[in-house]
């Protein structure tokens, strides 16, 4: 395959799947500049790995694996540099295109805030879980067992329920 064909294929891949990259960048970047830098770094790493893509695996699995690994590394570097965390900003994620009532929107925002407070791996798990990825796909993307995925998701869901319960008691 000629270099121009490879570049065209890669450009098409990014265009068709940019939602994956945006979602990961929005979840791990704390401000617009960080999200733009992270998006760019993910694309660079996808490009570097593109010729080695093994088509026995789903393309989305391959992309999520690279994007999440880059994001987690970025997050760790950023955290070491600043040693400060920040909550999700309004509008960081667009979960629904349809208008939602105020209570539902508030709960969605709280859920995103709680997910943002999770450890890197747990955050990645929840992103993929909320994307309706199967446990098998999540395991492939994150390089852990399906049993580990199921256990961790169950524990995270319990943690999130407890956080919501505490809010409702107050």
Describe the overall structure:
- This protein has 170 residues and is mainly α.
- The protein folds into 2 domains: 1-95, RNA polymerase sigma factor, region 2, helix turn helix motif (Rna Polymerase Sigma Factor, Chain: A, Orthogonal Bundle); 98-170, Orthogonal Bundle (Arc Repressor Mutant, subunit A).
- The chain has 7 helices and no strands.
- The longest helix is centred in the N-terminal third of the chain and has 26 residues, at 3-28.
Provide tags for this entry.
Arc Repressor Mutant, subunit A; globular; mainly alpha; 7 helices; 170 residues; Rna Polymerase Sigma Factor, Chain: A; 2 domains
Overall pLDDT: 83
CATH fold name of the largest domain, please? Rna Polymerase Sigma Factor, Chain: A
Low-pLDDT residue intervals, each spanning 5 or more residues: 92-96
Shape: globular
Proportion of residues in extended strands: under 5%
CATH superfamily of the largest domain: RNA polymerase sigma factor, region 2, helix turn helix motif
Give the count of structural domains. Answer: 2
- Backbone CA Rg: 17 Å
Task: Please name the CATH architecture of the largest domain.
Answer: Orthogonal Bundle
Described by its quaternary structure, the protein is: single chain
Through-space gap between termini = 62 Å
- Would you tell me the structural class of the helices and strands? mainly alpha
Q: Could you spell the SSE succession in H and E letters?
A: HHHHHHH
CATH class of the largest domain: Mainly Alpha
Tally of separate helices:
7
The biggest sheet, with number of strands, parallel, antiparallel or mixed sense and barrel status, is:
none
Helix coverage percent? over 70%
What is the number of strand segments? 0
């Amino acid at each position: 395959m000629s270099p121009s064909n490879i570049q065209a294929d890669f450009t098409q891949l990014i265009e068709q799947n940019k939602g994956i990259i945006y979602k990961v960048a929005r979840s791990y970047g704390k401000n617009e500049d960080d999200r733009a830098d992270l998006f760019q770094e993910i694309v660079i790493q996808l490009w570097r790995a593109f010729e080695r893509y093994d088509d026995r695996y789903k393309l989305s699995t391959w992309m999520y694996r690279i994007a999440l690994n880059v994001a987690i590394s970025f997050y760790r570097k950023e955290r070491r540099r600043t040693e400060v965390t920040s909550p999700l900003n309004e509008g960081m994620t667009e979960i629904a295109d349809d208008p939602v009532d105020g209570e539902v929107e508030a709960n969605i925002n709280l859920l995103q805030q709680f997910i943002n407070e999770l450890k890197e791996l747990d955050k990645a798990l929840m992103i993929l879980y909320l994307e309706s990825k199967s446990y098998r796909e999540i395991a492939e993307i994150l390089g852990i067992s399906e049993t580990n995925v199921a256990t961790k998701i169950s524990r995270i869901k319990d943690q999130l329920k407890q956080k919501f319960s505490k809010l409702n008691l107050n």
